[in-house]
């Protein structure tokens, strides 16, 4: 998520998107976004935003860090990182690919030169689109992409950066920044539609103000009201963009997961959902394990399943599995207008 060295080894909601490919109607999943979906692209960049070190990966088969900010254990291979495939002369993109990059935001100014920006991810995908058209033929490529799912998780880093730098921002200033993000997002989503995206799964921004990193900045360790308010504004506006596009393009179908509303349940009522700790990170150093990133030198909790957060930005595997279940076959107000299972069946 945010621009820091810390990254998670946990499975996150975005990886639920891979489960839909088990259905015959979904031949591939094309993934865009930030660290919630980065499966190793940043390993190929000169950047500190990586996850290829312990204790990351400790819950992954073999217990070895793979460079995934998010991993999945849903019985289906993850869409491989684009930068690992693009170096091959016979790269195969038919089974899906992930362009996601830890640190990315809607704005190109977010973590500049430390990640693959969302605009750059779309540019890379345009090359994949052309490659599929050459290898499959335009008609078959169009059919393939129409059945595939385009999974997107983007916006958290933009909001985190803004909230950290503008803690005293007024509601109107917050809205102005969100409006600017949405203007960019609208064009980005339209570009993906123009390049064949017809089934879109959009993961809304979570309650980033309640991440250990932003809590730690408060003397009373409360959530950042600025960040959480902006997350709500952003998710609502993103839904407006998608519903507007669907009205304009009847062949476009989408599911939006409001991870802010979904995750706040666990944060506000942890015991009800089986959690013991909803404020501090499992892995890290310093106050709330949120002063220093989760690195090989960091301490980590004995029972990762009773923590909501793995590190100072990302949820634990336990949290992610619960969010995954909601996204896959849940209903409004958390996933709408349809869920992932229903989207995959179209």
Automatic annotation (TrEMBL):
Pfam families: Lipase_GDSL. GO terms for biological process: lipid catabolic process. Residues 1-23 form the signal peptide. GO terms for molecular function: hydrolase activity, acting on ester bonds. It comes from the Eukaryota. Keywords: Hydrolase, Lipid degradation, Lipid metabolism, Signal. The keyword Secreted does not apply. PANTHER family: GDSL LIPASE/ACYLHYDROLASE FAMILY PROTEIN (AFU_ORTHOLOGUE AFUA_4G14700), SGNH HYDROLASE-TYPE ESTERASE DOMAIN-CONTAINING PROTEIN. This is GDSL esterase/lipase. It comes from Aegilops tauschii subsp. strangulata.
